[in-house]
Amino acid sequence: QPALTQPASVSGSPGQSVTISCTGTSSDVGAYNYVSWYQQHPDKAPKFMIYEVSNRPSGVSSRFSGSKSGNTASLTISGLQAEDEADYYCSSYTSANTYVFGTGTKVTVL
Amino acid sequence: QVQLQESGPGLVKPSETLSLTCGVSGASVSRSNWWSWVRQPPGKGLEWIGEISHSGSTNYNPSLKSRVTISLDTSNNQFSLKLNSVTAADTAVYYCARDYTAYVPWGDWGPGTLVIVSS
């Protein structure tokens, strides 16, 4: 199962918004609303940020939001802050009853 | 608050079997949830290895399925990963995780443990 496609990097200045795309197929992202997003700081375990495309777990800032259109999901970070600098991964449930991660995106705060 | 902690050898020889355990506190592995293993080679992205349900059902990444076994140890409230015939490509940080809800697999994570495959 090939990984979902994400841009290698995105950047923005503090206070700006950035959007990360996550492109899959009609067998994963396009088939289900089971897209999640994870934030990972260096040498740390991933942190659960978004589930079911656009829902935030308790404790996650409202600056993080998710959406989906067709086979592409997106994560938007609004009001970018220095602490948002990290790697971000999407994931999706698939029609094969498995899960697949995205390739990962490094967010840089300029 | 659930806590997960990976444990096992940090060095495994090529062609041997990698064995890791995930100790769980704050939740029962036999009562509910799905329990997963995820790995991350140094400097690379995340890869889902597989999962096991509280009742012992399993699902595996097709690319690893022939070499992977995930099992429950309910008496010790833990679950385990065995990956056989390892090569240098299996060198990675291995994470255990608990699902958040159905089809949302990784709400809680362990800190991870680095396993190096080398002779």
List keywords for this structure.
A: 110 residues; mainly beta; B: mainly beta; 0% helix
Mind explaining what this structure looks like?
The complex is a heterodimer of chains A (110) and B (119). By secondary structure, chain A is mainly beta. In chain A, 0% of the residues lie in helices and 44% in strands. Chain A contains no helices and nine strands. Chain A has strands spanning 9-12, 18-23, 35-40, 47-50, 64-69, 72-77, 86-93, 99-101, 105-109. In chain A, the strands form two sheets. In chain A, strands 1, 3, 4, 7, 8 and 9 form a six-stranded mixed beta sheet that branches. A three-stranded antiparallel beta sheet of chain A has the order 2-6-5, with no helix packed on it. Chain B is mostly beta strands. In chain B, 0% of the residues lie in helices and 49% in strands. Chain B has strands spanning 3-7, 11-12, 18-25, 34-40, 47-53, 58-60, 68-73, 78-83, 92-98, 108-109, 113-117. The N and C termini of chain B lie far apart (39 Å). The interface between A and B is medium-sized, with 26 and 24 residues.
Radius of gyration of chain A: 13 Å
* Count of discrete alpha- or pi-helical segments spanning 4 or more residues of chain A: 0
Strand content of chain A: 35-45%
Number of strands of chain A: 9
Q: Which spans of chain B of ≥5 residues are poorly predicted at pLDDT below 50? A: none
Write the layout of secondary structure elements.
The complex is a heterodimer of chains A (110) and B (119).
Chain A: E1 9-12, E2 18-23, E3 35-40, E4 47-50, E5 64-69, E6 72-77, E7 86-93, E8 99-101, E9 105-109
Parallel strand pairs in A: 1-9
Antiparallel strand pairs in A: 2-6, 3-4, 3-7, 5-6, 7-8, 7-9
Chain B: E1 3-7, E2 11-12, E3 18-25, E4 34-40, E5 47-53, E6 58-60, E7 68-73, E8 78-83, E9 92-98, E10 108-109, E11 113-117
Parallel strand pairs in B: 2-11
Antiparallel strand pairs in B: 1-3, 3-8, 4-5, 4-9, 5-6, 7-8, 9-10, 9-11
